[in-house]
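Memo to structure team: turn this sequence into structure tokens by end of day. - J.P.
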Amino acid sequence: MSRPSAVPGAALARELAAVLRGEVRFGAAERTVYSHDASNYRQLPLGVVKPADPDDVRTALALCRQYGVPVVARGAGTSIGGQAIGPGAVVLDFRRHLGAVPAVDPEARTARVQPGTVLDDLQRAAAPYGLRFGPDPSTHSRCTLGGMIGNDSCGSHSLAWGRTSDNVERLELLLADGTELTVGGPLDPQGRAALRAQPERIGRLHTQLQEFTDRNLATIRQGMPRLPRRTSGYPLDALLPERGHDLARALTGSEGTCALLLGATVRLVEAPAARALVVAGYPDEGAAADAVPALLPYGPLTAEGMAADLVAALLAAGPRPPALNRLPAGECWLFLETGGATALEAYQSARRLADAVRRERSATVALVTDPAEQRQLWAVREAGAGIVTRLPGGGEAWPGWEDSAVPPERLGDYLRGLRALLRRHGLHGVPYGHFGDGCVHLRIDFPLDDPRRRPLFREFLEQAADLAVSYGGSLSGEHGDGQARGELLPRMYPPEVLALFGEFKRIWDPEQLLNPGVLVDPRPLDADLRFVTAPRRPLPLALPYEQDGGSLAKAVHRCVGVAKCVDPTTGVMCPSYMATGEERHSTRGRARLLAEMLRGMEAPPGRPTGGAIPDGWRSAEVREALDLCLSCKGCASDCPVHVDMATYKTEFLYQHYRHRPRPLAHYSMGWLPLWLRAVALAPAAANTLIRSPAGPLLKRLGGIDRRRVLPVFPPETFTRWYQRRRATHPAPAGARPVLLWPDTFSNHLQPNVPRSAVEVLEHLGFDVRLPEGPVCCGLTWYSTGQLDTARRVLRRSLGALAAAGLPADTPVVGLDPSCTATLREDLPRLLGEDGRPLSERTRTFAEFIDQYAPDAPLPRVRLDAVTQTHCHQHAVLGSAADRRIEARLGLHNRVLDSGCCGLAGNFGFEQGHFEVSEAIAERVLLPEVRAAGPDTVVLADGFSCRTQIAQLADGRRALHLAELIARELRG
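Reply from structure team:
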């Protein structure tokens, strides 16, 4: 049970905390994190409740009603229209605890879900029966069924399986006044009469709804456009007698404004056993859209459009995915998927579809049957919402006109009109989307961080709304209205229909308690924008933010809330969220906190900011959220917009502790390279000391968790061994020199790793050299925000390299991925152009062998192996060379999808981090290592990964790739 402090709404918070089993959070950090979703808006709530069960929902709603506080239901917070936030509201986070799949009925093809059930969890529960839920938004790994029902979500397969409203059987509802009822699908007259006959509030509600419909039949029939994708406004036409007074459908898409969802029964569909993908190329998106109507009779499961500028945005953001090589010639592509009971059946359907595509002379086509290649191509499309927030030229693009829809046969003309409208306003965007349903996603470079140009935002949206309506379309075709489009509804619906929307809302929620300001009496579309404008004076930053114009505000605004970082099932991002499940410990949550901190720094001195975090770099809330950031860099690669929280954390720590005392761990482990050089003078004495009764005291004084085992110091460092060996083993004449970087941890703690590297490299015919003097990448200082020291250390290291007297193009081999990644990526940030030459010639051990000894014979290693990839290698360096070297060795290797090991340098040793460190490792890594056979090799190039395995994996030891090869060479 939470203990709220003295904060706004403290009386309500105290009462909630006294009676709820779930968390009650009314502090500044939680209010900040839940003030955003994936929209352009920021609405500070009064507080956040994370109900543990339906009783918590009932109690929280009752207390909020008693206090007159509005309530906003929230799933994954990926709403693009601003539906999952509310000013002064209590936000109910259903995803935290109410995410089960209580039942799957394979005979009825239905499933019962809770409001916080994540779509992929439902898919996993249904898969053993050959079933699935049809709608599949690109956020399927984290979006919830409650959110999908609230917005009537669709996804790429709506051509085959419809929208969420087509797949809802029953909704279990809690009304604002505490009434509970279940509503279902179409009813005959007798069924409707039975609803009216129910007792008390439920009977009165049904009577009101039916009388409301009967009074307004003509208005509803004439005022609601008919098209495949219409999610703007309330779907009042579902109440018509000819549609069976379908209450479940009428409430799907109501954006949490009428009732809270306690549970739902949804229909499932049979999943095709096999699939094939036809990729059709066209000269532009207009031509692709024009081709769609002729292809729909062939029954594709999807007809997704993706223009070349989306691919250009992808390439501008990172390396080229190999799957793009399968795209045929063109400037826009349709992804046309087919399915079948067998691979042959799916292929034959795809062939017929491909033949139909070829009838259009300007079209090109590719047929993809390999499931892995299909997944890679779909991954490009799914990342679209994140990718296109950075345009190919580097500009920022935002939602606003995100998912308009028109009849599919008019989509080509609409797209041409939309492009012309963008040109008239001098705006740019990347259109893509569900062309088979006439739905277009579009992020646009609105100047939202410039108050003088913000009127352009409103002007464009009003004209775009008129354009869509002129083609018989809808303002929203998938994401709902929220604040983004609610104010535009009068451009789509006549006044009498808008009046019916208000009346419908009041029947369900007469006190306007549920998500007020959405759909009915909407807030202005250009109010409450989340963007931090230029601060009152330039912030003196320590790092360059070269991809963001030197602006930390622009850097943190990379986060658009698509929330890939709250997918706990795969990848490296975000390990602390995977362990705690707390939004403020996700990449998105931390970006929101940093943005709120910067907002507080905008206001002139003495003027209130209206923000939750007014104390700038001294913010305790930001420090606490960043404390559990492992600086793994996973977000820098896995986040679609490459939010780089490790860099932002370094900046914050530098500014936060500047001229102030630091935590003990910053002095002990931040300065560890220096302490290890001192220990190397008397390693035996140091081992005796740390194993003595003084050992626990040393840990406490160093800010080290008592459960961590301090390392045993070897009798000799690697560099001393190298000097002895070189005296008796001179380099062979004519051998090509290579400079081995003796990183601190390998040199002082695990010298067997660089010794093995020397053996292997000399076996391959290279002359292995070392710098003339101690070197260090400075990572321990960098990660703790001690940037002035990190720069001094790196400059001295560059001097030691220069003193080696080797040619300027001599490759440098790094053995530890974190150190190598620092040289590759962070060195130029710290030293500018002075650091670039070393950055460009630094290679990993595998990269060097792959590049400089591509044909050299390597020993055959006929063994099974599992590999833990260091997160910095995943994020910065890549592992393609490692896979090629393993293939040359004949190693049967399996790379674990385990993400960060949880140790992350000093992180896992620091007091207060052990539980999180262990939980991260126990998610995948430790169970996999323990389950590996005794003859299976565990590979881990990272010192941190090997240490975590050694300390927590019941005695298993991991090897560096160099150790494995050297062992085989020795026989």
